[in-house]
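Before the break, one more example. Copy the sequence into your notebook; we will annotate it together after we see the structure.
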Amino acid sequence: MKVPLSWQAKAPAPQKCKTLRTNVGQTLSSVSPAVIAVCVGVLSSVAAVYAQDPPPAAAVPAMKKGPRQPRPPKPGVSTPGVKREMITITPEAVFPIEGVPDWQVTTDEAVWVSNGPKNTIHRLDPKTNKVEAAITVGRRPCSGLAAGFGSIWVPSCGDKTVSRVDIKTNEVTATVAATPSQSEGGIAASPEAVWIVTDAKGVLSRIDPATNKIAAEVEVPPNSAGATYGEGAVWITTPDKNLLTGVDPKTNRVIQTVEVGPQPRFVTTGAGSVWTLNQGDGTVSRVDAKTGKLLANIEVGIPGTGGELAFGNGHVWATVFQIPISEIDPAVNQVVRQWTGAGGDSIRVAHGSIWLSNLREQNLWRITLSSLK
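Here is what the structure looks like once it is written out:
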């Protein structure tokens, strides 16, 4: 608080009132009566000024956080006869995975799923329908899984590496210094190398499996995310530019740049095409892999963050929260079946089944394709 000028000018010099500062046992007998009178007057003036000030405002209590608001409902498709409920599905097997079962990749003898909080990947045996192994990898595995060169490749956002896990021994055999650019991205294995975006400035890194080191860097659009290999190329998505980029794995050169739907992130290949899940409007874009021509933006009705995309059994499969399974038929470029309800966030098709990571439920479903109605 500032002292008003009205009494600042009349106040005695500080040294005149120092004689009033006495220790225990001292008396005021030696202090001049005039000084005492002046100092008492000053103190009275100060007290009067403070009395005129309003009392300090009461502290405003911090607002308590309420429960998390539910996400806006996803519309899905409106085509009659397409929608179904998840409760109508009876899985062949349910694999309990405590933590956050998320990204998947499949191999001839197993299905693999990452678990960020546990710093592990889990190996599922499709013959016994059991969790065969939990393998410790880098901290906070993220940004997809890839299979190639007898290994599973696991990006980790916590320690900014890629772990290489031997498929036969279930052991980490190498740790590559390669930083995933985004946690919601992707990693791919071509016959030549392993590929992952490692810099938001626009760097696609090529990992040599012979040396377990980055052997080359390819310039791609800044803030690129998803990665997959198929139809002879490595494909990269750039959400904030609405772009799909094709890279020749033999020459390390960009061969296709295609504008697709808004905010493409997840990407897969099949039926001579590249498919992107567009988080901006919930569509799936289809691009001819040879010509780079956009063939269709397919209405799926699953906008927003999260999700995954896969190709299997001749169809495209998408997953997001609220709508765990959407099936697209490439023959008609339309959603032909769609299941709503709890579950989902990553999806693969292999071993005659759909493999669905139910992140919030902490499990993974195996759904036999022939059982879907």
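The domain at 83-371 is CATH 2.130.10.10 (Methylamine Dehydrogenase; Chain H). The radius of gyration is 33 Å. Try to locate both features in your own notes.
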